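Page 37, top half.
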Amino acid sequence: MASDYTFFFVMLSFCGIMLLVTFVYVLRRAFAGDAGEIGGWELRGAWGRVTAVARITLAEGIRTKIAAGFTGLVLIAIPLFLVICTGDGTISGEVKMFLAYSLGFASFWLALLTIFFSCRSLSMEVAQRQIYGVVSKPIPRWQILVGKWTGVMILNVSLLAVVCLATYAGHRYKLWRFKADLAHELHTFGGLTPADANAAVAALDSVEGKGVKGQGSPVVSTLAKALGQTNDQISEKLLMLPEATRVNLRRFDELRRQVLTARATLTPPEIPDLPDLVDEQYAAMEKESRLPAGWTVRETKLRIKAAIKASYMTVPFRMGRTWTMKGGPPPSEERDFLMSVRFKIRPSSYLDSVSEFDLERDTLLAEWGVGNPTPDPPPYFSLLAAHPVNTFNEFEIETESVAEDGAVILSFMNIDPRRVSAAFDFPFGLQVLYRVGSFEMNVFQVYLAILIPLACLGAVGVCASTFLSFPVGSLIVIVIYIISLCIGFVAESLGITEDYYDPEHITWAIQLRQGIVNSMDWAFAIGDCEPVTNLIEGRAIGWSRLWTLTWKFVLLKGLLTLTLAVMIFRRRELAAVTV
């Protein structure tokens, strides 16, 4: 243990020295020289001058090989992903993989383009002395920097809009191709006329109700209504289709309800009064002389805390747990408004198949309940099923099972005959999702969410270009970008969460680590909220969250960064006066 702490403090000291050297170097380069701009912060006529600089910057970006190379790479990659992204072979897997690759790849390369372009524009003009033609004009330097940042963002807004439109068109093409193939197979194998096959495919977009298997599926009833036939007749025709097509038909319905939508999320509440519960159990163990020998108070309370958390998230055999989730909207009166329970079960041991109960390997038998089963409740929904473990699953809830204030009472009973415990990783391992908007609205929110870190990176890049050369500035901003992506791993590796220490006994080493990580989080965060992951899971980012990220990382951090850039640039001597 001592050697681990020694290694930690050696590495921490080394990183601190390197950061200090970098900081001193940056300050020295930033404030070197006594000459600079004498003018003030003039606002009159600023709009015209800023837009003129932005137009020049944008034209320069379009002409440069860096922007052309990045743009060409992104625009070539999207059609390529449209062809090669097959996922698990189903229509749902294809669409989700295409969305993830297209938008994820584009956002990463646009971040690099923003870094290189924002660091290059001003620094290269200074190095090649092109800036003389600008600063000799009656234009304050702050307007030059704002114009540079605006030009960078106009390029980002335009390219990202093209990427999002191409991604949306690509997913529509995949859906169109799926429907065309389905209509062909309904005509070839199902015996439908071409007109009836097209009518059946068109009716898939109006399917309503919970997704279930068999004749009770809303897909079967919708097709029966569209073709004027019974559910039995439609089921017989669907059985004539190839197995892969029937699976694809079910996955298409899941895709519509779980991905091509925008859903908000409810999670189980935090454990109430956790410190009080720990103290109560510690006092009871001390009174009964059950404290472990040789353990400190801190170690004992940490174990008690871990046991309480595990009991809250773990359901033993023949036991149940109930969680009340609040904060959701009131139930919608629309028929197609459904809520979903999304969960991932981790068993305590390996699960083999059980032929007696018809249980497959790696599945766990459980009973869910949604609603309040006491008298005078909203309708109670129950589900008895064997769910695959170690993977995410979803089942849907009628909105009648939700209370008027939007609260959801969710219960889980572990009845698996193999006598294993079932655990959920909160908050992501158990969630309730409800529809709040359309897929198009979700794509637009993702578009705005991707722009937020690009705007922050653009401000940092413009600031770096005021006193650093293009290679050095790009390298520093790239390091900032990488740290911002890895800040969660840094916090976990330093062990600053309450899982690793007792909140009542915080040592100076823990305080030091907390201060370092919190400072890094504040300094290097750029507002990335994982928009692509939210999109492929059908989660809405939300307007309130977008506004919070905008004012925090664009209006506050971006404005502070540009203000620092202006202070540095105004002090910079661009050319010595010779007599």
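Page 37, bottom half:
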Amino acid sequence: MDLKKLLTPFTAWGNITKDPVTIKDPLNERPGADRYRGFHKNDTELCIGCGTCEVICENEAIDLVPISDSKDGDSGLRPMIDYGRCCWCALCVDICTTNSLALSNEYTWVSTDPEDFRYVPGVDKKDWDNNEKGWKKPDNYEFYSLNRVHMDELSPEQRSDSFIEMMKGYSKEQAQQEADRCVECGICTATCPAHMGIPEYIKAIRNDDLEEGLRILYDTNPLPEICGRICTHKCETVCSMGHKGDPISIRWLKRYIADQNPSEKYKEILEVENLQSKDKKVAIIGSGPSGLSAAHYLVLMGYEVKIFEKLAAAGGMMRYGIPEYRLPYDQIDKDINYILSLGVEIEYNVNIGTDITLDQLGKDYDAVFSGTGLHLGRSTGIPGSDNKHVYASPDLLRWVVEGKEFEVPESVVVIGGGNVAMDITRTMARLQMAKYGKVQVIATALEKEENLPADREEVVEAREEGCDVNAGWAPQSVEIVDGVPTGLHVVKCNSLFDGEGRFNPQCDMDAKEFWKGTMIIESIGQGMDLSYLSEEFKKKLKFGPRGRVETDEYFQTGVEWFYMGGDIIEGPDVIHGIANGHKAAVGIDMMLNPEKN
């Protein structure tokens, strides 16, 4: 016999010198062990009401109940425990995505009212709320991976002079591995402007049923290829998995579904056939995300739909404002061509207001929806900004798409720190690299590094590609020599807002820099062009803050047949535009078919 096994029983003699544990009042004092699984505690400040505890409980001992108004990332619900069902298995604690749930080591509770044993931990105060003993999730103990699956991309060297798409997409194995991290809480759906069925389409990926995934996408989003690449993914900012690790790559999973389904099978997969016309016509102004979305849902409802587009191709700012390395043209066309295949017509190079008036559209069509977007650049108004060599970023980005020739200088300064500023910064860098074999682009923004409005990956990737991004500087003037810019004068910006939260930049006028650049590009935001609204027509509308037309919940204006949506009303981003277009289509249908109300 093994000597260790032989001697093990005798180790118990070591306890002979220890003081015995005596419970003097066993009826009232029966403490549980330090890690005993007793009654629940919940830190309601950490809890987001995601419901993973409710789903995992096999005894159905947990119900989510409302305790406050919901907000982004918080459902406003909290778990109520039924101790007639609870078996203290602690699965709810182990799966909790925010570590808000725990079990005290209290296990005795006497009451004659059975309803007392159904309570909301953390809300219904209990004696053991501050008891630190009991069961907590052990460190490094997770049911799901906290790290998102990395998507492969082109290296900075591969992409620095190329407009080829830099993100390569997920493989089947990568997509399913990432989908496995989802706890199906639904917080993302509540936050998404289009309220997409995110847990459902992620589940379809796990089940390898990508046709079902596509059907779920198209319920609320007819631009999945586009949105799967450039969506602002507000859903990911509230993902419950992001409280302890990386949020689920919801946008990339959406892209995976769209990429894997061939467009020629869309009608079959989505079961679209024999669309019947209601003999009523709707005009759409602009073929951006809101216009395309409205057109998609209206044609499915049976309306004759025609889009009037000012430019030579459809897509709006998705095509003319986002570089091809982020959103390839063929992927834009895949989404748009499917919508056109349903019977939607687009007339290009039509300028509403001159080629055809809005009033005439109102006479020729039963309803009109306008989603004309934000195509005008804003100016800083600093001295020298009116020089012809000071450009607006939307103009340059559009020229690149149109193939319009313009001088690519050896040195460029971009004013702005948002995503559009990063787009033009990286676009000019690519053009410089292709022409000169080197990059000399400086981007400057008022905001400090940690507050830059651009997505963090955009800033990082710009620097990887040789661009210089300088945060916390305020533009003062463009230096002009012989009619041509030579650079930008800036001073250090210490703060943007005053004590009352108003925009009021404060600068150190003694901390100065001069950045050389023979081209200055302003990218501090975009404005809307409402010149197609005559002065007489404007009198029928109500305007709100920042000159935006006010609409009702279905985006109907003060003119019964006229609807407006997208960036000119809400946003700016693609997913808001898609949601606006969808809801406007519902509103137009209700207006033209009042029996539906």
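Margin note: The chain has four domains: 29-135, 156-269, 281-374+528-596, 376-526.
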